[in-house]
Predict the structure.
Amino acid sequence: MTDENPIVYVVDDDPSVRKALERLLRSDGYETKTFASALEFLDDGPSHVPGCLVLDIKMPKLNGLALQERLSEKEIFIPIIFITAYGTVPESVKAFKAGAMDFLEKPFKEHELLEAVSRGIKKHRILMKQKKRMKILLGRFNTMTPREREVFKLVVSGMLNKQIAYKFGITEKTIKVHRAQVMQKMKAESFADLVRFAEKLQIRSSTI
Amino acid sequence: MNNSAEEQLRRRLKFERLVSEISASFINLPTERIDEVILDTQRRVCELQGLDFSALWQLSLEDPRFLYQTHVYRPSGGPPLTEQMEAESNFPWVLEQLKSGRIVAISTEAAPKEAARDQEVWRHYGVKSSLTFPLSAGGDDLLFGALTFGTMREERVWPEPLVKQLELLAQVFANAIVRKRADYELKEMAETVRKSADEWRTTFDSTPDIIMILDGDLKIRRHNAAAIPFFGRSSSEILGQHCHDLMHEKKEAALHCPARRSFQSGNHQEEEIYDTKRHAWYLILSDPILDEKGKVTRIVHRIKDISKRMEAEAEARKQWEHLAHVTRMGIMGELTASLAHEINQPLTAIQSNAEAAMRFLGAGEPDLDEVRQILADITRDNARAGSIILKIRALLKKEPIPVTVLDINELIGDVLSLLRADSLLQELVIVTEFSSGLPPLFGDRVQLQQVIINLILNGAVAMKQTPAVRRRLVIKTEIQQESAIKVSVADLGTGIDEQNSEVLFEPFYTTKPHGMGMGLAISQTIIREHGGTICASNHPDGGAVFAFTLPVRQGDTA
């Protein structure tokens, strides 16, 4: 999935800029999709392939910064490269605070854009990989029984089998059985693996 | 017996002489001496007649139920006399007699039954016999007091001739007292009048405004204290003079003179004037004084110095002009922002298209159709950028110039005080070399200020890399061939490329990283509109000199 060809989305209300950017990106081998407005982009939506968004700030109706907000609300975390014909400092600060990748002032040098796009796609690939791994881990986590999940949490927090047994009022032997189940279900080869998974799932500190 | 009869006669004659002498002495007696002479008379009468006391009572003016003892001669003393006594309750019977105009001559022990209360009081004071005369004013018989003579050591009788003579005295006293009372009232009234006149005078004099009363000829009839220093003349030199003569040194009042208009219209008139002699602004207010028939007899004429107010207003106007200027700069900034947006769009498209075309051409089998298409787009975007520049030029030429008379040195001074707080100018020295006596210019103050601001700020920016000690901006004004004023701003910055000195003034040409390239273009437009020229050159000592000339109007040379 993450190895698929990336798509660069261009959202700019100026047709000649849109067309020129499409050509430039195509000349560098990118597949592009262009949109004349933020709303058009939201309607069509980005597909599940790696890519990035080249977004003009100053546009009628929904402007670039507002689109960034909408995407964030929808949990679509595609890297955004803002382009603007006359940027102000507050605008750029706002964009970066909201997680913009880059902020280019028109007219920019073509390599500035191409480099930013390449960085954006790389970042998106990593993001997507992480997301995928997370999904797998969550799937494994969900196969465990409630008791096994509790044992998982306590184990990764550093408690000994004995302590856990005492806490639950059951034998140490039973705990050992649960622990083996946890290792198997999470597909952990070692205790260190388990701790790492727990970290990714952000369940480590939420115990005790 | 003979001797005694003779003696009696002699005493009677002496007493008669005394009475007539006293009566005569009251005729021209000044009022302030009346009391003294009354008391003296009481003493002499008592001494001559062997009486023990004499008292003069007056009914209170505020409350006529009370008696005041005003003149008493009682050398032997006795129970303390009250200064004030209720007449009705102490001497009801005597009061009754006096009110009827009767004289009461009586021995205490022989008092009638009706006088029981009176008798009691007499006894209390040890009075054995008494003779009391009513005192009344003029012919209306209104009782205002009483005069009593009496004995305390022994009873005595009151023979008719004595009563007659003392009655005469009582009459003389009454007249004197009436005269005194009238005089007192008159003085009182005069005092009141004087006080209120004083009050008016003080009010009149304490105002800083000049207040005058003018007659029908506009001659000054009265004036307040402020008029004296104002005209620089004494009161006698002001009174009777014509207002317009003192005020304007004119033989006749101007047609628009508020006093003149007020006389004609019969109502309030006012006018603000600038007095070139005194270099001050005045508000002149005129109000008519009308007689019963509604005819104007006098004018209350006020001159109020409003220079402070006018200056404040001028200052406010100046501030407002500054504000308008700043706003205009702000609008210019906004305009350039939107223009930058406009022009950057085609530039971006051109840049990206050109790069794409080069890449396509570099590929193995270039799609020439596509490249052709790209070149067409580039041409179109280029035309688009060009038209935006034309639009800007048109915009800058639009407004007609509001022309005012300007002093260029003052104008530059204003700019410098306006820019004083600008951070760019904090770290450099500004030297002004102004020629004095330059002829006035005609032009738009705000626009020319804008040009000067531009040149100063450009110079400051050009010196950013100059060592701090060398950062110096010289602003110079001079006359050129008597027909133009030249203003130059010299910096010690990086200087300019003289080959390109024409391009400097093109819109969007800039050397600043974030410059808009509008400053000099706007400046050039403004100077050209004013019929002048602007140019740039390098200074032999380093740095750039930007200079502009503005024509002086022929015939206006100072």
